[in-house]
Amino acid sequence: MTRTERALAHRWRSLALVCTLVALAGAVIVIWARITTEADRADQLAAEADRRGSAVTTLAADVRTLRAQVKAAGRTPAAPDPSQAIDGLRDRARVPVPIPGPRGEQGPPGKNGTNGVGQPGKNGTNGKNGQNGADGQPGADSTVPGPAGPAGPAGPQGRDGVDGQDGTDGRDGKDGQTCPDGYSLQPPANDPDALVCRRDGAPSPDPSPTTSAPPAILAPERRRP
Length: 225
Known about the structure:
Blueprint: H1 3-10, H2 12-72, H3 82-85, H4 89-92, E1 183-186, E2 196-199
């Protein structure tokens, strides 16, 4: 037996412990790497699910906008409402998308419950009649006329009336002059308070007294009062 074999024979337990620890460390490292890989993959799946949820939300909003525009134009949209076409659209379009975890083991069924024993209740007594309410105040007098309403718009202009017939001509009036044609009433020179018929254009008489016969004076009925 060599010196090396003797040293290994005395320290085989330490070597076995070291080997065991190395093996355990390797297993832990491998498991940790697998867990990290699965966590990264889960993060990638969650990010992709969030992106798809955002895309679904955007498309649903665009479809609703297009439907509103088509209805505003008086037409019937061919595409249905997204919430009616897809079941659970609100939950599917929610961001961040809830990712369910692994399903757990089914638990044992529970025991059947005992039937409850209830007793019928007693009939209640009839309540007392309430007191009569107080008389209300009299209403406002409806015969009072309300305020005048606003003036209505002016009506259309009426048609022009028919012209009336011309009246008959009246009779000619009498001339107020009592003198014959070619004569007119003039005051005499000797009596300014009187009027006599004198020929138009005749010369004025001489105011001095003369021996000639006085001019003929018209009868009283010919004078103007």
